[in-house]
Amino acid sequence: MALLTKAIKGTRDVLPKDVHKNQYIEATALDIAEKFGYKEIRTPVFEHTELFQRGVGDTTDVVQKEMYTFDDKGGRSITLRPEGTAGAVRSYLENGLCNEALPQKVCYLTSCYRYEKPQAGRLREFHQFGVECFGTASPLADAELISLAKSIFDTLGVNDLSLEINSIGCPTCRTEYHKALKEYFSSRKDELCETCQDRLDRNPMRILDCKSPICSEIAKNAPVVTDYLCDECRQHFDKVQEYLKTMNIEFSINSKIVRGLDYYTKTVFEFVSNSIGAQGTVCGGGRYDGLVDELGGPKTPSLGFAMGLERLMLVMEAQNAPFPEANAPDLFVVAMGDKATLKAVEIVKDMRAEGFTALMDLNQRSLRAQMKYADKLNSKFTIVIGDNEVNDGIAKLKNMKTGEETEIALTTFVSGFYNISLSEQLADLEINGEEIDFGSLFGLNNEEN
Predict the structure, then answer these.
(1) Residue 213 region by backbone torsions, left for phi larger than 0, else alpha for psi between -120 and 50, else beta
(2) What is the pTM of this model?
(3) What would the pLDDT profile of 253-272 be if each residue is shown by its tens digit?
(4) Do residues 88 and 130 lie in contact, with contact meaning Cβ atoms separated by under 8 Å?
(5) Are 25 and 309 in contact (CB under 8 A)?
(6) pLDDT digits (tens, 9 = 90+) for 138-149
């Protein structure tokens, strides 16, 4: 049988056997962000095109070449979000968060869309974890933002990441830097790609970010932005470095980092891995002090970062970082016959009501087939119920790991199951020589309990 269609190029499916890895990364990121005071925000997958043209910048590759833009049935130009910051800023302004106590800290898990050549770590539909901090000009915020990203990587067990930082100054000091870049690149204008020839007059810093090998080679000896910083930007950058050193966060200064979006000012940074080849940047961000007012709001110094989840997954797998095992069913009920099926339905319902994962065979196959199915699902326990078990009110609960069977009353099944499974957990801890954390075992996670 031929498939009607296949997944669109540059997209991918995450299958049930792998999705727990994604959930682990996402939950970890959200949990750590909350510890830094960030609350989740959710914005639409598409916005008016002008939001990204104004916010991201019409000289960027994203706007010029990569956006998924279309006219809707009302004739409005709509774009699938290519990144998360512009939409977050729009929401911050439209919903009046700018009138709340500052700084406002938000975070998000989001899908993004860019039309570019698919390759390892780069898809046309990709996912990001991002944070945005609105309303602070302090260099301490820059260092704390970087610390947040590093905390996520450390918690996930990701190592061998290099933190590279730079300052691209403010509009005032960038004016002189742009003059120096124009002078440098003008002498080799004919060698630049067509896009960069256009950038030369509009925004020469974009040439430093060009993916063309020829443009990249020419840019190697270009003037360095940090040589043109004004006193304020220099002091800000020095303070960021001082705070990072106090936090024991290692970094190097990479004067070529400009980031791919026009809204950045002052501090920019990237976390880069050598584990996944050329597409090694797994997190990037920085300060964007002019974006909020560019989109119609009051002047609001702000900053943020985005972390590519597909790339992060590649890095973790390449480094054999630890993932938790996928959750296995607590119980699989094997029912043989109509009477037993009714009892199984009752047991499964009661188990689920008490927070256990309980399954039964919806196809009502043979005993052998059901046991084989339970084994494939990695069920922790199974119980076989037939007419005799229903009549006697007793069945045998089997530990699928050890093969041990224990009689259990069907009339008080849930409490009996709880006691048996608890005993098994205690035995496992004792066998493995682990210290028993009773608070965790019984769900007692705070002092009140």
Answers:
(1) alpha
(2) 0.87
(3) 998 887 756 678 999 999 99
(4) yes
(5) yes
(6) 999 999 999 999
